[in-house]
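Deviation from plan, reported transparently: zinc ion complex.
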Amino acid sequence: MIYPIVKYGDPVLETPAQTVTEFDEDLKKLVDDMFESMYAAHGVGLAAPQIGISKRIAVIDISFKEDPNAKLILINPEIVKKQGKQSGSEGCLSLPEFRETVNRAKTVTVRAQDVEGKWFETTGEDLLARALLHETEHLQGRLYISHISALKRDIMKRKIKKLMRAGEWK
Ligand SMILES: [Zn+2]
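Because the crystal trials were delayed, the predicted structure below was used instead.
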């Protein structure tokens, strides 16, 4: 099932998500639906609040279907290590059409649970490091625009308000 993507302005995106405690068939179905919804929206990462579900679940595939081994499921993820620096363009499915330069760590290690509830650690560099940070922050109710200047953020928010008034942001 493909869920519509929740856009900026919906409070679910700025609310810390709930810890997952049930590792059942419903969770597996939700994870499958999240991948399907992410691909349909042409994204490489998706957090459950972005489909209106306030649970600590994120999916990532920076290969966008090219490499089956690139599919990453993160349940209850925590950042355990950050190293180095990178600067690059970043966007979000919940803020379509916008992109901004965001400074991030170059290498990131995350500790998370899989769909069975088993803990694992994974380390990513460059785009994967960026995705790990971006998606984990979504589960804390934090958006990438918190990393840009207040001036740039205000300009973006004004543009969004205009789109909302025109009925082009829903
Ligand atoms: Zn996002």
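Residues 92-94, 134, 138 surround zinc ion (CB under 6 Å). We consider this an acceptable substitute for the interim report.
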